[in-house]
Amino acid sequence: MSKSIEIQVLDKIKRNPRGTLFFVDNFAKIGNTKAVNKALERLVKSSELERVATGIYVRPVIDDYIGKVLPSIEEIAVAIAKRDRATIVPTGSYAMYKLGLTTQVPLNIVYYTDTSARKIKIGKQTITFKKASSKNLSFVGKISTLAIQALRTIGKDKATDEEIKQINKILKNENPKHLQHDIQLAPVWIRKLIATNE
User: Fold this and answer.
1) Which residue of 48, 55, 61, 122 pairs with 69 in a disulfide if CB–CB is 3.0 to 4.6 A?
2) Do 31 and 12 form a contact (C-beta atoms < 8 A)?
3) What is the pTM of this model?
């Protein structure tokens, strides 16, 4: 019986491209949680799957040169948000990293979310979901969202001319309607910084 659950789980995984993330509840129709967990454990032992975090699994992409390629922290966060039907917004040092304002990948990646707050350990890194107000989740532009969150992290009167120049340069790639919408949600001091160098 447990063997057939294992085969069914693997079959379902193989019907998706390598690199697709799976959660235990993706296999609810195959068996109960305990049986599915055991099947997943065995598939990890046999190297069919990799466990990227508690309850999250992947059949890794295999690259000719570097071998196994596991999903990025962002891909994992997006998959969790999709599963939970949640909105997430990158904040802090991760927003700065995404904009190229820092080259250091943060160990603790923080997202604002409209679901419950929690932390998920991924190897040496941590994804932190922080419960936020609807205003903080109302941004529509990908680039403008990052720019506003990055400036918030840097702080009022602390952004260097170089940082402001870099942010405004990147914002030229944002949809003008999205930028206009998001600027209205930003604190006044951020609006001034973005407006001054447009």
Assistant:
1) 61
2) no
3) 0.86
